[in-house]
Structures
1.
Amino acid sequence: MRVLEVASEATPFAKTGGLADVAGALPAALGRLGCDVTLVIPAYREAFAKGLSLEPTGIEFEVPIGTRRSAARILRCRRPESPATVLLVANDDYYDRPSLYGGAEDFPDNAERYIFFSRAAIELACRLEKPFDILHCHDWQTGLVPAYQKLLFADTPAVANARTVMTIHNMAYQGLFWHWDMLLTGLHWRHFNWQQMEFYNQLNLLKTGIVFADAVSTVSPTYAREIQQGPGGCGLEGLLASRADVLTGIVNGIDTQAWDPGSDPHIPRPYGESDFEQGKYAARVALAARLGHAAPDSRPLVAFVGRLVNQKGVELVIELLGRMAGGGRAHFVILGTGSPPYEDALRRVAAAFPGTIDLVLGFDEGLAHLVQAAADVTLVPSLFEPCGLTQLYALRYGSIPLVRATGGLVDTVVDTDPDTLRDGTASGFVFQGFDALALEHALVRALDAHADRELWRGLVRRGMRQDWSWDSSAREYLRLFERTCAVPPARVD
Ligand code: ADP
Ligand code: GLC
């Protein structure tokens, strides 16, 4: 099976969130199952700064963008640890910028940047030696690929027989742009209708992908159900329900090499199940030093690592800190970056409790690993969460996830109660309602459990033993690809 993975970010090249982790690891996992995989991503400035060897391929072509043409130069990166080929689309006007999508405001030309990228990906597929069976697209940035394949490349042998799979990582980001950006796509205005590319007078790139793809997937079974209704579907619930026959939920795996407490270069002392207490203590000492403390304090360490946006339940964390930090039962570490009002509110609450709350505003991959290694409890109180990787990293690093019952968090964390302790399925703490009191109650339960050393050790060890590696998720993707290839492509007029 030849698979082209198309994504707007992938580790180790460029990352803003979990999509990069998935796009970075899935190609290698599919490769291990015998697929011949090529990953294509934009060649951002960040990718050049990583010290990876990016070689020219000699493939260069022009991509039509409205009435103009923009040049795409294709680079290749060989990575000994991955069997997948990685190709990067370089165009410095679009991608040589200080961030991937913009800062507090998105870049004003993001429509053009990703229309170009989607068109370049499919043009590139046409220039490679063998045809692909599957074009696997991730999120709105690649939503035009299925439309291009069906509408503009239906007679191009290299891609005409491929099936397209659109994977949704987050319904909250749909790539909505003003209608005149339709001109940049090169597609006929007749597709700008409410059943295809239009959403209330705007161009919607994720919707386009969902409409034109042969199969649609999202990153957990619970989220696959949630998005077929409001509010989870963010306005596209009707469309998603109409595609229920081809909509699957596959929980993400984690890269167990990059996230391995037994060999992680970001932590001071590697550890496993048998010596996690020593390993985590060493991580706490290192974290305390990094945060400017003379020594770690002895209270349980409660962590939050994530984007500071409304999806992640940041307001609950802020309220929780205000309510609990004075009580002295735990030490808190917050690592995140995002919306300025959340950053300001966190700064204020952290300043009020200097010995109890450590706040790091920024994106720091190594520190994220160290925090997970040091933490006893990792908070993921999301309003919604398509899959979530943070709770899976927490489990592997022996930090107990405390999550809200939504999306992929439901599919990956089992609440601790007498029954789940007895049958050995307990793996974390789960609360239902989106409010700070419910979060606080769950944290109090977790801290009470932490005080029972034997119970806690059992929880930690079982969590560390769980297998969230890509192997089984990649097998599910492969089955999805095989199913999709077995039926004729969806017809589009
Ligand atoms: P999302 O993709 O919605 O942000 P996930 O839980 O799927 O959520 O993935 C988040 C990823 O981004 C994880 O790898 C997490 O460690 C990382 N991450 C988020 N914020 C930061 C940060 N400030 N510094 C370092 N890593 C971060
Ligand atoms: C999105 C989601 C997150 C998911 C990630 C990778 O960013 O918000 O829940 O884990 O994509 O699929």
2.
Amino acid sequence: MRTKPNIIITGTPGVGKTTHCETLAASLGLTHLSINTIVKDRGCHDGWDEEYQSWIVDEDKLLDEIEEEVKLGGYIIDWHACDLFPKSWIDLVVVLRVNSTILYDRLKSRNYPELKLQENLDSEIMEVLLQEARDSYDEEIVVELTSNTSEEVDSNVARIEAWVAQWIKDNEGAEKEDS
Ligand code: ADP
């Protein structure tokens, strides 16, 4: 049984996942698990997609790579998909959302290829990641938060910190009941 929760921070590229994960990891002492970095550094891919300028992820290899670590608890998973992670690993799924004009500006400044930029904007407008999260996990662990401004980052972080503190308290209680 985990003594610290595992959290997924998901959403369309550019919504602010990394910004949230880094802040939360520092304040809570949890580990920021950037799936992008793992895919790249541990070779969990079938090559590079030139058109999309991204790795073609080998999901089975990725899950094998992180399983032992993540099962210990205390990880904040940073990825623009969530349906690959087994339900039993995950305690909270945060789906970050952003206004499409703001997202356009953020992706434009990253020099995304036009096709990738448009597909990501469409995905945000169509709520693709929110739906994926709701289809993959129990509704009570899926939370939708907006991330248009830095004030919203601060309030989202405070909310997630409070949730983690409560989860740890509840979990300690459960452990005492077991013993
Ligand atoms: P993601 O990990 O979802 O791709 P990032 O955290 O890398 O997103 O954020 C993308 C860009 O937008 C970064 O330049 C970041 O500083 C900025 N940013 C992210 N969230 C916010 C926010 N809520 N308000 C203002 N700027 C933000």
